[in-house]
Amino acid sequence: MSVIRKLPLLVGIALLGACASQPDDQQLTGTVSHSAGAVQGVPGGIIVDEERVEATVIALDPAARTFTLQDKAGNRRTVKAPPTMRNYSELEVGDKVTSTLRVERAIYLREKGEASREGAAMVLTPPAGSKPGLLIASTQEIVAVVQAIDAAAHTATLRFPDGTSRTYPVRPDVEVKPEYLNQQVVIRVDSQLAVEVKAAQ
């Protein structure tokens, strides 16, 4: 769901995409994987996306607290270190930076009486004197309501908490049942961003 796909971007820009402020403002390239699973005949499923970016520190500006990264394709991006990034002074030209963003979305119809879960977030940084790094984990639950169903078109329209509505195709193996109308659809998003910095060999 495109509405949901935007959420992990808020986490992902925390380092490799954040605050690009110099002429070197190219998009760093990486590897992307996607997988999905579902139970036959059961609405919903699980979608997992993972993106991995590897780059090298090619320039530092301590006064501005920025660093420039270059990927294997030669793309360059200058980034202002966010406040959550500790040990900026330990960065050196030639350091290897690896960022891995993993987002898992579980989508299902909520059972009657099932309690909602609150979101949570965690940020971990390395101890003083170590290379910079970052681990951010967050969980968010979004609850939509089945506003309309169309058995002929095999679609369902969901209404989101912000008042917007969107129509989605229903998988061919899932029956569009009248009792789904007004049921809650839970979209649970688990995101993990890990940034690791290693000294050049």
Automatic annotation (TrEMBL):
Lineage: Bacteria, Pseudomonadati, Pseudomonadota, Gammaproteobacteria, Pseudomonadales
Keyword Signal recorded: yes
Keyword Signal: yes
Secretion signal, residue range per the UniProt entry: 1-20
Name of protein: DUF5666 domain-containing protein
Keywords: Signal
Organism (species): Pseudomonas oryzae
